[in-house]
Amino acid sequence: MGARFSETSYFRDDEYDTMLQTIKGLGVSMGVTAGAEATASISIAKGDKKQNSGGDGAIGLFDEEASVDLLAPKEKQAVNVMRKSILRKDTSAVGPPLPRADNGRGWNMSKWVEAVESNPVPIKFDTKEMCEHPAFTSSASKYNACKKHLKGYCKARLR
Known about the structure:
Layout: E1 4-11, H1 13-25, H2 30-38, E2 41-44, E3 49-51, E4 59-61, E5 66-69, H3 73-85, E6 86-94, H4 109-118, H5 134-137, H6 140-150, H7 153-158
């Protein structure tokens, strides 16, 4: 039980090579740039849980909001080049979505962890053909009708 979140970026074909050359010219690889974009900053909100330094394992709360930029100047430049080249982004989540940090930079991991802890979902599952559902397999006629209409189901439904 838990959650999954991903964000996929799409680039225009005609701008992709230019973007790669610009990033390479900065002395940074595309893999590092994409990773840097994903982890560009860490934000801590007021009231987030923290481990107390007393060594007793007690949990306390942060007294103030803070944000730390983790990028070197050339990495920042590379991330900005990449961000300008993105045509669109798609997000996918199983369970609670990963919220943006209050300051708009990066992600608010602590809020996401809280949401996942209060509402975990299965993160691994298998898919089966619709006709294999017990509602159809309990009757030969229902199963056969399902199989008959399966090939055109989505096409007919979307008209």
